[in-house]
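---------- Forwarded message ----------

FYI, see the Carbonic anhydrase/acetyltransferase, isoleucine patch superfamily record below. Original note from H. follows.
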Amino acid sequence: MALIYPYREIWPKIHETCFLADNATITGDVEIGPHTSIWFQTVIRGDVAPTRIGKNCNIQDLCLLHQSPGLPLIIEDEVTVGHQVILHSCVIRKGALIGMGSLIMDGAEIGEGAFIGAGSLVPPGKKIPPGTLAFGRPAKVIRPVADRDRKEMERIVKSYREKGEYYRRLQNELESTTDER
């Protein structure tokens, strides 16, 4: 079971359909919507400002989500957050993909359906327009998201929802098997 802690008596609110990896950690003022998956060794700390995660999102292995005072972290529906991403007090709009190893800083906003390439740094306050591909350190818009990119982004969301449902069922089966011993 994931490590879920209150912070100053505020407990995370996690929809019952979510998959939470056993070694994920979630604390404080965090809300996670339906069919979202939080993967192995991810840490989501809601001990400075709120974190809101929509439905059908996947927050992949080794991610770190946190905030600065007065600056919430908002992740809208159907967002993919790749392995080892750091999100800090930013806004990720619906259907966006944040590539592996990227860092999105305070006040940055990733537009709806935007694609941030692996290893990118989106500096504080930077706005990435909807439907664009951006990458680099600092991230720069390269081109519009192509149809093949959009299809791959949709495939990833669907695949992680299916994997999350599988692992959630497996967790339940293993718990009931352990209880019988």
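H. also flagged this: Helices lie at 147-180.
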